[in-house]
Specification:
This protein has 222 residues and is α/β, with parallel strands linked by helices. Helices cover 33% and strands 26% of the residues. It has helices at residues 8-15, 20-29, 71-79, 101-109, 124-130, 185-207, 212-219; strands at 42-43, 50-61, 85-89, 97-99, 114-121, 134-139, 148-153, 157-159, 162-164, 169-173, 176-180. Strand 2, helix 3 and strand 3 (85-89) form a beta-alpha-beta unit.
Length: 222
């Protein structure tokens, strides 16, 4: 495990320059095969990228609305630190917008780096106009009141086969979202940057006409 320390803002910027397939490959090599969120969770608009330590949110479907159910949401956004990415485990809620324009505006003002929702989003045009990165499973106009409620924040959650702890890194791009364990975040970043440099060399050699087998034997990648 590396002992190198990198400032948070620099980490975020560098992770956004690394493609998620490179990160996923490195995690596979470390025996971590369940770090990729379900493929249905995608950016709500082209070009969105997200990276940062997660603030986790757990909720559940309901048919009742009480104002007290929103207390966990208030606590979540009060606890939000600059650079964090909000990650929602909705307990497989099938049809509610768990994120929208008002939350995007509020959290962006606090320095939130984006949101990853195993569920729905609404006010898509307004969020895109805010230039706020959101990755979600689906889009719907349905509000949470009487359909879904917050339960806990900053607790371990699960999305698909991925177990996510508060502080684990969520990194998303056009390919999807991958989760990097917090204690491996720097190590994986450094290794992913090396992979990106190697892939650049591979691309240059293939473009110059080198045989793919020779490239694979040389770099161990293709």
């Amino acid at each position: 495990m590396t002992t190198i320390e990198i400032p948070l803002e620099e980490m975020i910027a560098r992770y956004k320059q690394v493609r998620t397939p490179a990160i996923a490959d490195i995690l596979d090599q470390k025996g971590l095969f369940h770090q990729i969120l379900p493929p249905q969770i995608q950016a709500i608009a082209p070009g969105m990228r997200v990276a940062g330590p997660s603030l986790t949110v757990k909720g559940t479907p309901t048919v009742i609305h009480k104002d007290e159910y929103l207390q966990a949401a208030v606590e979540a956004y009060a606890a939000l630190q600059p650079g964090q990415v909000v990650v929602f485990d909705t307990s497989n809620d099938p049809g509610t917008a768990h994120w929208g324009e008002m939350i995007s505006t509020t959290t962006k003002a606090k320095g939130c780096g984006g949101a990853v929702i195993d569920g729905g989003v609404r006010d898509v045009e307004a969020i895109v106009e805010l230039n706020f990165p959101v990755f979600a499973r689906y889009k719907t106009p349905a509000d949470i009141r009487g359909r879904w409620r917050y339960v806990e924040i900053n607790v371990p959650i699960r999305i698909g086969d991925v177990h996510i702890r508060p502080g684990d890194w969520a990194v998303g791009d056009v390919n999807g979202v991958v989760v990097v364990p917090q204690d491996l975040a720097v190590e994986v970043l450094l290794e992913a940057e090396k992979v990106m440099e190697t892939e650049r060399k591979i691309w240059e050699e293939l473009r110059a006409g080198e045989h793919p087998l020779n490239v694979f034997l040389k770099y161990g990648r293709f």
